[in-house]
Amino acid sequence: MPLLVLPMLPLFRKYLGDEERKKGKYDGLGGSLLAGAVALLLLAVTYEKGGLAAAGLIGFLLFIARIRYTAEPFVRPHLFKNRSYSLGLVMAFLAGGIGYSFPFLSPQLFSNVYHLVPGAIGLAMFPAAISSALLGRSGGKLADAKGNPFLFYSAAALLLTGFALLSSFAGSPPAFIALFLIIGNIGQTFMQIALSNTISRTLPKEQVGVGMGFLAMTNFMAGSVAAVMYSKVMDHGPIVALNPINAYSNAFVFSNIYFFLAVGYTGIIVLYYLQFDREARKRRSLAGGMAEG
Predict the structure, then answer these.
(1) Quick one: average pLDDT of 255-272?
(2) Alpha-carbon distance 89 to 219, whole Å?
(3) Which residues, other chains included, contact 161 with Cβ-Cβ below 8 Å and sequence gap of 6+?
(4) Could you tell me the pTM of the whole model?
(5) Which residue range(s) make up the domain with 242?
């Protein structure tokens, strides 16, 4: 499928403007330190080794020292002095890791609990995938018409509903799971749009490219970390379900994961309200007061 991008290259060259190339050097050492720290963290979780975790922490500290004291760092540290941007990255990391549960856990659920063959798993997941793809543009329109907070809270409501239903009814007929995945996947698509728009607005124009690039890398890192964490939890499956509604013992581990993901999203909602929504309300209130004056 990626080969289909090749015929589009002439259009990219025609319609995307050529930017003046700035002089500078790529900080390969800084990038390597960050990649090594993340890799060691993943290995530490996978193999439950404290030594690997300590090595990952050392690598991360060396990365921080590198970007602080080198002339042309992998990413400039002053970018993270922007409190709104830094908190936005934290939210994006958490939301990306939680959202990765849909493409990662869903096949595991259909395979381990329902024992579906790969083709049937693909068919069960297809409605959610096509729904989120078709409605993605609607999310952008909602953000433009109603504002990012409206889209964010709408996405959060869909995600909380999806996780609550999955936690309560994991183990019920697979058609219900396919329906719940539609709700969750649409919510995740809207959430990505809302957070990307929100974070981009925290950056001055000259930092947007680097800042959004780091955001994309954060999302990849979140998916990698989440995949390892979900795998470890499934390996140590629980005996009881945290959600009293769920009565399917063979799906308790999935029910518990979805339960924790729903709880985790409440933290993201609180962070968003405190850092972005409340400040936006204050600015609108001040603007209204000045207009009346």
Answers:
(1) 93
(2) 9
(3) 183, 187
(4) 0.82
(5) 79-292
